[in-house]
Amino acid sequence: SGKSPYLMFTNRHEIRRIDLLKSEYTQVVPTLKNAVALDVDVSTNKMFWCDLYHGKIYR
Question: Which domain holds residue 47?
């Protein structure tokens, strides 16, 4: 498909992705308070995360 593999992750304050071939970071979701869980549904191309500060699950 020509796309580089990448890893999505959170550092609690934002969600980022890193290109595993180029080691380049991209900010995906900025200015979070306390995001502690992250999941990606590849079949629907949707991302979910939990922010403990707000007590919510986001999509």
Answer: 6-58
